[in-house]
Write a structure and sequence with these properties.
It is built from nine helices and nine strands. It is α+β, with helices and mostly antiparallel strands and 304 residues long.
């Protein structure tokens, strides 16, 4: 089995952050990212890059972090009790994009690497990550293309990779109190190490590098679509689901807060504007009702 090398992972993540930021700036065509570097008292730090008030993107954040500490937080040891008593090193790139136009989906992606050490014992390490899509006014063409991109990047890693990580994404981004998925899914993986460091790292790279080619064409196709105040208000209402999931269920948010990470960077995923409405029900037969009836449940998008 190949030996884990955190330095080569870090180099890839920094390059990935640059590539994604450059690609998003090109898609927006007007705004640019501002970088905010930060340090963490317990060890490590990162660089947060945020684009605001763009022509296409209302807010886009692409964060790199590399933190270390003497012990893992409760959110990690509850999931992996063998980590108790080990020091750790965690690094990753995480991004969330909130577009202006309700016809462009919100999206999230992240790739990450963890390694935990203990004197006299082998290190415990794994990769995780994925990407998912959250439309407001979904187009079947976009959803199918998104999942085809996900399937294509998985193919070199075996025929079971896409269905396994697609289902994991559906299960993870489920809001039980709403009885609906957060969006139309994508890929989600965690605890990836059984194939050895090189192959596991290669899959993480494929997911990170595959995000922008999957999302960019959707943005280009929908960014000139006309919309009005009614569509904008529905977008703001549905953004509330994003807030609910990230603050109640997301393990990454919990990990960041429990490890003393930078709060501004952790909560960068929150939309700049959002609203809630008591007992909202979409009008029967409306485009809004189509989101609920046809898209907010797990489906085999490639074999409809």
């Amino acid at each position: 089995m190949s030996i884990p090398d955190s330095s080569v992972v870090k180099a890839f993540l920094l390059e990935l952050q640059n590539n994604i930021c450059n690609g998003l700036e090109a898609l927006d065509g007007a705004a640019s990212f501002k970088e905010d570097s930060w340090k963490r008292e317990e060890g490590g730090g990162g660089q947060s890059r945020v684009l605001t008030a763009g022509k296409v993107f209302e807010q886009a954040g692409v964060n790199f972090s590399h933190v270390m500490g003497a012990s893992m937080p409760a959110s990690a040891t509850a999931h992996r009790p063998e980590l108790a008593g080990r020091n750790f090193e965690a690094m990753g790139v995480s991004l969330v994009i909130h577009p202006n136009n309700p016809h462009i989906p919100t999206t999230h992606a992240n790739v990450r690497f963890f390694i935990a050490h203990k004197e006299g014992a082998d290190p415990i390490w794994w990769f995780g990550g994925g990407f998912d899509l959250t439309p407001y006014y979904p187009y079947m063409e976009d959803v199918v293309e998104w999942h085809q991109s996900a399937k294509s990047l998985c193919e070199p890693f075996g025929e079971q990779a896409y269905p396994k990580y697609k289902k994991w994404c559906d299960d993870y981004f489920w809001l039980p109190h709403r009885n609906e998925t957060r969006g139309v899914g994508g890929l989600f993986f965690d605890d990836l190490n059984k194939e050895g460091f090189d192959k596991s790292f290669a899959f993480m790279q494929a997911v990170g590098n595959g995000f922008l080619p999957a999302y960019g064409p959707i943005v280009e196709r929908r960014k000139e679509t006309e919309f009005g105040e009614h569509q904008r208000q529905f977008q703001l209402y549905r953004r509330g689901r994003y807030v609910e999931f990230n603050l109640v269920y997301d393990r990454g948010t919990l990990f960041g807060l429990q490890t003393g990470g930078r709060t501004e960077s952790i909560l960068m995923s929150m939309p700049p504007l959002v609203r809630w409405e008591y007992a909202y029900t979409p009008e029967a037969g409306s485009p809004e009702s189509l989101l609920y009836s046809d898209f907010l449940k797990p489906r085999d998008w490639l074999n409809l």
